Amino acid sequence: MGIFELIYKVKDIMTRGFIKVYDDETLENAFDKMVKYQRDEILIVDNSEKLIGIFTIKDVIRSRYRGISLKDSIIKYASKNVLTIDSNSSARFARDMMIKKNIGRLPVTEKDHIIGVITNNNFRDTFYIRVDELFKLQNYVFDNLHEGVCMCDGRGIVKYWNKSCERVYDVKVKEILGKYIGDFFPNAMILKVLNTKHRIDNAFHEPVKGKFVVLSVLPIYDSNKKLVAVVSTDRDMTDEVNLTKQLEDEKKRVEFFEYAYKNEISSKYNFSFIVGKNKKIIDAISIAQKVAPTSTSVLITGKSGTGKEVFAKAIHKASKRTGSFVAINCSAIPVNLFESELFGYVEGAFTGAIKRGKIGKFELANKGTLFLDEIGDMPMEMQAKLLRVLQDGVVYRLGSEKSITTSARIISATNKDLKELISKGEFREDLFYRLAVVQINLPDLKDRREDIKDLSKLFLRQVSEAEGIEINYIDEKVYRILSDYKWNGNIRELKNVIQRMVVLSDNGKITVESIPEYIKEYINDINIKEYEYDSKNRYDLQKITDNVEKRTIEKVMKMAHGNKNRAAKILNIKRSTLYYKLSKLKL
């Protein structure tokens, strides 16, 4: 059934101003009414208003020729076998009936009562006007479809081209209408269907270079099963395809950076690159190597800058886990964002949530390692939720009831005393034991001075390569000065100092003058002079003894705030001896 049958019914196009007479009325009376109302037919009903006949202008002409008396009853000369149609029948059905029965009018009934009549004039003056309106409506609908609609006849000549086609292919209707489709699109799917006679559904196609569509093509047959037309509906997928390509490119970039990142982890953060001769650091490396292949939680403790994250990455690298190393600094996340950062959220979970939601750190670290730095700064309410995840191995995104299994290995780190925090009620004891299955403590740099020179050389090489600056000379006195500094910032501070010296170096040389002033001030000028002795005096016992004595007396004098009597008691020497040495040493 077509759109015309669905929309227009008999009652929409019939004439309601018909002439009705009763069966006992005369021909003369009927003629008068036909002339008065200018009608070509009269409908005849009985006393119950039921239609029993029809009298037309042709009947009038026949009665005149036969010399019939105008006083006769009209029913004697009317057509008795009258076809009728229901008012709710389709207009197309009414037209087909009139053509098939070769009749010029068709009474319309509703519950056996006449309510109108359809004549050929109705179809000429009303029905076809409505059909024209339908064509206009059809064009409006088709022109506003998202899909492009093209119809070609059996020879491939374009008969219809909607506005979406114009937009998709940048070809105007006046340019293509009446033309062969192959002249514009040599590989058009319409041509394929014209050849094969088989429909195509939801096929991906590139009609012209750079334009991608998903289309369906339908062959249309007449009543004799002859192919008379082909209709194509094309949905433009160019933006989606280009977006997909961009996403693929981005995916490749992410994979490249992930590969590069893993290579960086591999090259810079394995145990062979952790420099250390100090016993404490060697013990820490040994424990880390043993625990790395397991899924055991590790707690790394130590002051800021002692290399906790370096150790965590080395453990991850040695673990052979297939997932990523994901780090999160617990001290840098606002309390209200903690849960969303760790567990993620779905779209609409809260005001300000980004569209399509966000994946949490636990999911990102699945089958890998989640490094919780500064774990001592995690809020108490989040500690309980973290403990639950560690117990169950399941996370829930904010706003979702769907569970997500995670097998992230947890390595945490802190520069705080967690047991002291536990005693203050600021850290959960049960969480501590979950995190500190294995505990590794990293010493301060000042407690491993024997490693400072090797660390300095490592950082010099790394910074030189990164900055593209060649260092071809380093004064040995620089290493001795650096080894004597206090390094409150530990290894991180040392690396920053090395970077400063490299980028500010002159002609690829690093000398005592390259060392930052605050370090030289701490060592003080006297100590600097000690380092300025050339190599032949380095083991001169007398000079070494004099320097040690000088530094000791100077330090005690500062402690005594210049009180010589008190300084002499601390040094366990006579006051006269102290005066002598102060004079000798020019203090």
Automatic annotation (TrEMBL):
Tagged with keyword Amino-acid biosynthesis: no
InterPro entries with a match to the protein in the record: AAA+_ATPase, AAA_lid_NorR, CBS_dom, CBS_dom_sf, Homeodomain-like_sf, HTH_Fis, P-loop_NTPase, PAS
Organism of this sequence: Clostridium lapidicellarium
Matches recorded under PROSITE patterns: CBS (PS51371), SIGMA54_INTERACT_2 (PS00676), SIGMA54_INTERACT_4 (PS50045)
Start and end residues of each Sigma-54 factor interaction domain: 274-503
Keyword Aminoacyl-tRNA synthetase: no
Record-given protein name: Sigma 54-interacting transcriptional regulator
Transmembrane segments: none
Sequence ranges assigned to domain CBS in this UniProt record: 14-70, 78-133
Source organism phylogeny: Bacteria, Bacillati, Bacillota, Clostridia, Eubacteriales
Annotated Gene3D superfamilies: 1.10.8.60, CBS-domain, Homeodomain-like, P-loop containing nucleotide triphosphate hydrolases, PAS domain
Origin: domain of life: Bacteria
The entry's keywords: ATP-binding, CBS domain, Nucleotide-binding, Transcription, Transcription regulation
